[in-house]
Amino acid sequence: MKPIRNVCIVAHVDHGKTTLVDFMLRQAGTFQAHEALEERVMDSMDLERERGITIMAKNTAINVKGTKINIVDTPGHADFGGEVERIIGMVDGALLLVDAAEGPLPQTRFVLQKALARGHRVILVINKVDRPECRDSKRIKEVVNLTFDLFVELGATEEQADFPIVYACAREGWCTLNFDEIPALISKEKKASLEPMFDLILKTIPQPKVLEQKGFQMMISNLSYSDYVGRLAVGRVLSGSLKKNQRIIRRGIKEDGTEFDESFTVTQLYTFEGLKQESTEELLAGDIGLIAGTETFDIGDTLVSDAEIPALPRIKVEKPTIGMLFSVNTSPFSGQEGTPLQSRKLRERLLREVRQNVALRMEETEVPDQFRVLGRGELQFAILIEQMRREGSEFMVGKPLVLFKDEGGEKLEPYERAVLDLPENAASDVTSLLQQRRGVLMSYEQMSQFSDKEKNRVRLTFEIPTRGLLGIRSKYLTLTRGEGLFNTEFIGYQVTKGDIFHRTAGALISDREGTAMEYALRGLEDRGIFFVQPGDKIYEGMVVGECNKDADINVNAARAKKLTNMRASHLEALVHMQGIRKLSLEDCLEWIEADEWIEVTPETIRIRKKILPSNLRGVRKEDRAS
User: Fold this and answer.
1) How far, rounded to the nearest angstrom, does the alpha carbon of residue 514 sit from its chain's CA centroid?
2) CATH superfamily ID and name for 507-616
């Protein structure tokens, strides 16, 4: 077997993971000197580049000193934990990337726990050691100690807890194993590269384990697509080898849960070389490769060369904690701005997503044109909705609702640990907000213990029901004036604590179809804040704004000024609308209540009532709690 190392990179959001991979590719000679290489090359999705986060796990490979290193870039956000759980089985070790100032945060803990449970060796990479607050070295040593404590808390073995440490500046493309060299590297008195990290990977991460059995066996951990050969199965070869044109068996599972076998011929084989997929004649044990031959590949299937080789246990991910309804678009404007998904097409699209993302599930409902999708967080749903929207589809989604459990006659709900870094002067308001949402303050730390420049910031840790976190992020950013960091981690189910009030304000609802008029909106400004602008199309039952009282109000936002031949004494052209707020998709998901839909089209995102006619709908909100 040729020398191979399979390694994943574990990190919290924005700790420099994708930037580090950029420089690993550059310095390993993957790109020629004349090639122009854009930043964050591993963030291939438009949404990843726009949001600056990794959403999908992706593979690349470099060659260092005659050894092929397969690298998997994993998401750092807990909402995409399903990506992590299916990828972690493809590798034999991990680089744990930790920000030198922030230390290990909740998503670091989540992914690290999965890697340690697999028995993987971990290399600790302390990144961003050039940050000003880390120049005195006190904080860096503190972060190493915090990471060691985290390893012990997560049940690491003695061998795993004895991890090697690399000090790095991914933005500049250098690292060192010697702590004392950091000042000279920052000041550029000395030069360095990522070679110490490459050497440490070759020394610490073991050669892939190969099962002692005859015949080919591989678990499908990811899916890809080629315009030339169709769907591709991505996975690590656990035993044997595979050649092109060989006949093999796919061991899958039907929608009803029954197992089945499908025989097919391998039409094409690929391996990763840098960011490219290189065609090969044979896949060998231990390598990560891609296989073409059928359009029915699903994540979790086992590919075998012989019917006597058993199927591997399917990938298991932690159960969903939140559900959301997806519905056919039934608004009066349906079909005007995109392709309306009928129930069959909507079901097919959601099923396709569920097959590719093992962290999502789909359930049928009593209503034939509505489907419930179960997942882990609001961001996960927002990404799916945005992807479908960019495909040109029209549909509607409901309010995210948590999934309760009954055990021993008690009603249980999911709880999360929220870690907040924020200015000290906002701590009391934020604490009050989370306590209203049934949160319990577990710790209060002054950031000055980490750095003198952080003396005006604090770190709060809460345990709070997932219900309490729905719709809270925009309020949190308002209270902290955009300077607060918000991180969460699922910790399990606990007894339900009671009602939680989310939105205390009512809605301003259009009572007729037409066009929003500036004259009408100006006359209603004292009623609240508007979500529509003059010229926007509106219909009866559409939410046009937030009321400043706790009741819904039906308003005529399409009323035009009567034209006369009398000239006004004041200059109306200089009067501007006040109090208009443009809602993003995430804002809408936070704002809506259970009796409302979000209408999603390629051009517009609207909020509407489930019952459109005003004479069939009450305006009092009797039941705001969830």
Assistant:
1) 38
2) bipa protein (2.40.50.250)
pLDDT single digits (tens) 187-204: 888 888 888 898 999 999
- Give the residue ranges of the chain where pLDDT is below 70: 1, 13-15, 29-58, 75-86, 106-107, 135-136, 275, 317, 358, 447-455, 563-579, 619-626
CA–CA gap between residue 434 and residue 472 (Å, rounded): 9
Q: Is the pTM of this model over 0.70?
A: yes
Look up the CATH superfamily of 322-402.
Elongation Factor G (Translational Gtpase), domain 3 (3.30.70.870)
Q: Does domain 405-495 have CATH number 3.30.70.240?
A: yes
Nearest of 350, 303, 298 to residue 324 by alpha carbon:
350
What is 448-499 written as a DSSP string?
GGT-GGGTTEEEEEEEEEHHHHTT-HHHHHHHTTT--EEEEEEEEEEE----
CA 57 to the chain's CA centroid? 11
Handedness of CA 535, 539, 545, 551 (dihedral sign): positive
CA proximity to 395, closest of 443, 346, 353: 346
| 70 contacts: CB under 8 Å, gap ≥ 6 | 4, 5, 6, 7, 59, 60, 61, 90, 91, 272, 287, 288
Instruction: Report the 3 state secondary structure along 139-153.
Output: HHHHHHHHHHHHHHH
Ordered DSSP codes for 56-91? S-EEEEEEETTEEEEEEE---SGGGHHHHHHHGGG-
Bridge partner residues of 218 (DSSP): 237, 303
Q: How far apart are CA 344 and CA 547, in angstroms?
A: 37
